[in-house]
Amino acid sequence: MQESMLKKFKKSDVADKVSLIIALIVLVILFSVLNTNYFTSRNLMNILMACSLMGFVAIAETYLIIANQIDLSAGSVAAFSSVFAAYLVKMGVSPIIAMIITVLAGCIIGVINAATINYLKLQPFIATLATMSVFRGLAYILCDGKAIGISNASYNKIGSYRIFGVLPIPVLILIIAFIVFGFVLARTYFGRSIYVLGGNSYAAKLAGLNPKAIIFKLYIISGAMSALAGALLAARMNSGQPAAADGLEFDAVTAAVLGGAAFTGGTGTIFGTLLGMLILQGFNTGLLMLGVQTFWQEVAKGVLLVVALTFDYFRKLSRTKKELEESKLNKSNLVDQA
Amino acid sequence: MTTESTRNIIQDKGNVFWLINVYVNTNLLRYGVIQMSYIEFKSINKYFPGVKALNNVSFRAESGKVYAFVGENGAGKSTLLKIMNGDYMPDSGSMIIDGKEVNFTTPRDAIAHGISVIYQERQIVKEMTVAENVFVGDWPLKKNNVVDYSMMNEQTRNICERFGLKIEPDVKVGNLSTAMQQMVEIMKAVRRDPEIIAFDEPTASLSDKEIEILFRIINQLKEQNKIILYVSHRMNEISMISDEVIVLKDGELVGQKPTGSLSDDDLIRMMVGRPLGKIFEELQRNDNIGDTIMELKNITTDYVSDISFNVRKGEILGFAGLVGAGRTEIMRAIFGLDKVISGEILLEGKKIAPKSPQSAMKLGIAMVPEDRKDQGILPNISVKGNISIAVLKSLLNKYSVIDREKERKIADNAIEKFRIRTPDADKQITQLSGGNQQKAILARWLEMNPKILIMDEPTKGIDVGAKSEFYQIICECARAGISVLLISSELPEILGLSDRIVVVREGRVSSIIDRKEATEELILKYAMVDNEKKQ
Fold first, then answer.
1. Percentage helix, strand, coil, to 5, in chain A?
2. ipTM of the prediction
3. DSSP-derived pairing of the beta strands B307-312 and B508-514
4. What is the pLDDT of residues A56-73, one digit of tens each?
5. Are A135 and A105 in contact, with CB atoms under 8 Å apart?
6. Residue of A194, A331, A334 to mutate, testing the B interface (most B Cβ within 10 Å of its Cβ)
7. Which residues, 6+ apart, have CB-to-CB distance to B17 below 8 Å?
8. Helix (H) or strand (E) holding A193
9. Could you give the CA distance from residue B375 to residue B456 in angstroms, rounded to a whole number?
């Protein structure tokens, strides 16, 4: 019985991500020693706040990467949405309604992305590269190149209010999003169909799935998440910024890949992406607090990615070898039974 | 210095002596100064996770002879070739060529020792020309380091002529038929003038005419005193071309005997322990076939025209014909993959027009596709997930979350019922052998309780043991009232299983033959009659 518990744990998500969890712990300890202000609730909240924007997009990109897709337009859509939300508020639309409309607009953008992929048969990379450019441009056109300020205090409060004085609203939404989307991916029919599609889309079709419908859903999720991130960004910055969220999609993809999503499709988890995101942002904030020039953060991000994936590769290699050794020792292996 | 230690120095990789040795050897072989006389495997062992692929395998192959390797899938034939080609390293045991032990760590080493292995999966570059492929990695250069195309094309043309192939050297390989691509693969291997040539199921994609050419090539190589290893599932080929047969079973070598001393039944008995003819005789057929359940009336798509036939409840309807005759395309129309231009399909008297596999499934139609690896398995998920996918929607609880208990039960039941060999249901499907993968796919479709079960070459590339299990399952399906549409290129299979046989030629139904009247000759006549006229 104990052994089966151990086996169950070995197969679980947590065990699979052991190296990332250790990396995260080491990182927190390291920075806490170097700077006593690092491991405080206020700073940890700040880290979460800093990555909330990227977090929403990272969830969507994880789904997409597993399904062998990608959305490069996420950053542009977020910027467009921040301007769009600010524009709506300026027009006198109430904050909550403005947010909802913005997210719906994001859904429509998702439909456009999916339609170009499904019907014009463009590669996801190319299709979303095009919309990336289109929506960055539209963001500038909508506000005539200047940021739109938001004077509505209750809208701005969405970005700054802290529940019980600690928990910012965007962070709360992000935590809920991680739980919901993590559960959907792991345990529902839709989640399973994402994995199946990413493994082999034609085989998925022959097994009775509808790849086009899944692709629509995925890009609608991606558009909605980017728009949500943009709307929250506008609330935090008290304005709609057409130049904001530049390269956001790449940060999100970095987090997903760091967390174990593979570009060949078919693998990845939301839990992994969460870890990837925390490591990235924890590292960034740590360097910032140590007074390291911000340009170095970019360098660090790249190095981190390579080191983490290399480490993961060797860990998997040694695991395969171990399995091999076990099967050699195990006299009652499959062939003998047969 | 003892000879022992000298040899150790010479065999130590990276050592100057070793390099010289390989170089000299290669060139002596190439220019025919020396000829290889034998290769020997001594107690080769190879393990993979969960599987003992080769267990203490020893054999000896001599020049001027053709050795046929037979055995079920997963018996270890391909693993053996991969070890010889330097793709895999044996865990223990040794390979000996002309008395010297050799160790290959890469395919390059194998080539340097005069070994060429032609794999089942083509390894050619479709965007390059025939000549470029034949000389791949070893393109002849002019003095100014530019590739010498004229020389390359000329030499390629020579090889083509030698084998009687009508291929132009400067055609892109992607434009050739799959059979001719296979020939390019063979030319590529022969061009290196190897001493040992191994063929891994070379005839899988060849028609009879091309097989004839292949055998001529093999006989030429035999006359040149090469060592030829030939892996195949087809009995008649083995008796035609080989001098000795080496039988493998579950990673062990069962026997090595002169071909003439063995009948087909002897061979099969060595491979699985029972003769093939009995397999069909022992099947429990469905004795009470019902009324017509599905009818196709003058169905025309982009690929087939005027297809009409009916299938009755609990009937096994076989589809025979040449590769490319349009059998698969008929099934694609039924399964909602190809657009029906005219004609109609009636299911239980009602007109149906499935637009996608999804809608075909809702009507109770299931299909085991032709290409297991690229169309059948869902490669990145577990055996369990592969089995449950077709019925997954019915396994959701009231919160539309997958009921994992139910899913596991279904998978475990299927694994037991179909005897799928896997350590547990959570194993990734790609880690199973081909036959077991196919069983999982069949289990997937039977789980949804179909009215019509389409099976497109279900036993292709599957060993005899698993095949007979498949035959039993197919008959069980028919007894349970499922109508089976069975495509197969193996005539004994079609004859042994079908209640009626639809023969397809050039996109049309050329005849429908009853079980009682069907013979191999009759089917072949209807499948090829037009071709004969042309000749």
1. 75, 5, 20
2. 0.85
3. unpaired
4. 999 999 999 999 999 999
5. no
6. A334
7. B9, B10
8. helix A189-199
9. 11
